[in-house]
Amino acid sequence: MSTFQEDSITLRKREIKVKTGYLPQAELSFYAENPRIYSIVWKDNDAAPTQEEIFDALSKADHVRETLVPSIKSNGGLIEPVLVRKGVVLEGNSRLAAYRLLAQKDPKAWENIRVRILPDSITDSEVFSLLGEFHIVGKKDWAPFEQAGYLYRRFKTHGIDENQLHTEVGLTKSKIRHLISVYGFMLEVDDRDPARWSYYDELLKGRRFDHARELYSDFDKKIAGLIQDESIERAVDVRDNLPKIVKVGGNTLKKFMNGTLSFHDAVQDAHLRGAGNYYTKKFSDFKTWLADDHIDSEIMSIPAEEKKQLAYVLNRIETRIKQITKKVNGAH
User: Of 40, 203, 210, 241, which one's alpha carbon is 20 to 30 angstroms from that of 119?
Assistant: First the structure.
């Protein structure tokens, strides 16, 4: 058995005593509530995954097989110990999976894993706070879906309000509210695919679709269905093309909602009825920015070296504008 060294970590402005040493990796368990595991393993019926299911999922993950396994093997072990409470790896589940993959080929060499052990008195709420400190405030390596899952469970399960979450993770309250809302909607429409996060993020962002929701109470669920059956192929289509259908409204929106028009056909119909004008809007926005009264004074105050760089960029823009203008005029 390893000799453990005393250490401490800071959580919520208090020092917590921990022990660092080595434990047999086979005796440790994965933490099913870890947001990364939760996002890839928990399934439709919300039943907790088994340890075997968690290992199977993590062992197939690219970041485990292609990054952690060779890195740990090359180093001869972990640089950063996994964080353990009551035999459960709270932080470092991917590293534990990598260790077990290595142990399949050489059990003796990878028998013991470096650990940092928390006291048993640490609560579940404190565990989630600690994970947030690591991955949202610190390393910031959780994907948006994982961040949202963490915040959702802190809010729903642990009763932590937006003000406290803002203090814990440093995100604005509006951002926290949005992340929780999007994650909750994904659960409502039974979609746990992290790869589709950006679709729902665009769908629920801002007030672009409020009018459609007033007309059609099932608007969001209709779009969710199209996302899931891949009729809407890209998140950018939710951002750029869905607003065109909603903006043009009328029969285009009506036929889209009742299924007479597919998403693609509804977008085309919206274009025919004058929605979009994408390029005109882009150049108009650029023109508006250039016309701002503050631009001249701000440019005059920048350093000489930056003015040279700016002059070069402006010359390139001028050349490109002339090319585009020639093509546009030639199209008539």
Answer: 40
